[in-house]
Amino acid sequence: MNVLRELQSMRSKMDTIVSYLEQVESGRPVAGHELVLPLTVDPAIFKGKKPVGIIFNETERIDITTWKMVVKEILKRCNADPEKHVALMNLRGRASGRDRIFLANNLDNMRSPYMISENLYMETHYDTETLIRVLTSRILDAVGYDYRHVNVAIRG
Questions:
Q1: Helix 67-80 vs helix 82-91: angle between axes, to the nearest 10 degrees?
Q2: Reported pTM
Q3: What is the pLDDT of residue 96?
Q4: Which of 37, 121, 137, 151 has the least CB density, counted as fewest CB within 10 Å?
Q5: Ordered alpha helix ranges (H), 52-124
Q6: Rounded Cα gap, residues 34 and 117, in angstroms
Q7: C-beta neighbour count of 71 within 10 angstroms
């Protein structure tokens, strides 16, 4: 039964995403409309949108106003798990893009660092799409953090 509920939840989320994309593509206004999307969607969908909340496990909502706040809240929860903390610490200096390291043990060469914990910093100076892609595919996936039940409320 849990599998069936999970599939129904995923279908509902996909219906919401498809409806939103149809509105955007057709040019119909979506202003003032709040849309809740799973963090698992293509990060390009978030580009140009303003986050208004982050929802964990469909029950706990935290109001936020920036994408950096989204990243900080998720990383705070990820880092609170001792196993994930060790994995994050081991990822320092290893995960990087063309020009910058995503996680480091100090502030050197970081333009907009976020301190996750002592000796653990994340570079956050990216556009929305890149920031969310780095968070999910380069950090959370690498440490095994399950973000399937993390949703972001955005203003249309």
A1: 120
A2: 0.77
A3: 61
A4: 137
A5: 67-80, 82-91
A6: 32
A7: 23
Q: Alpha-carbon distance 16 to 22, whole Å?
A: 10
* 134 token code pair: 């780095």
Length of the chain: 156
Question: d(Cα 54, Cα 73) in Å, to the nearest integer?
Answer: 8
Are the C-beta atoms of 71 and 123 separated by less than 8 Å? no
Helices (H) and strands (E) in the chain, counts: 5, 7
Q: Which residue has the higher pLDDT, 149 or 10?
A: 149
Q: Which helix (H) or strand (E) holds 24?
A: helix 2-26
What are the tens digits of pLDDT across the range 68-115?
999 999 999 999 999 999 999 999 877 666 667 788 888 888 889 999
Question: Which amino acid is residue 40, in one-letter code?
Answer: T
First to last CA, the chain: 34
Please name the residues in contact with 70: beta carbons below 8 A apart, sequence gap of 6 or more.
51, 54, 64, 132, 152
Quickly state the pLDDT bin for 31 (edges 50, 70, 90): low
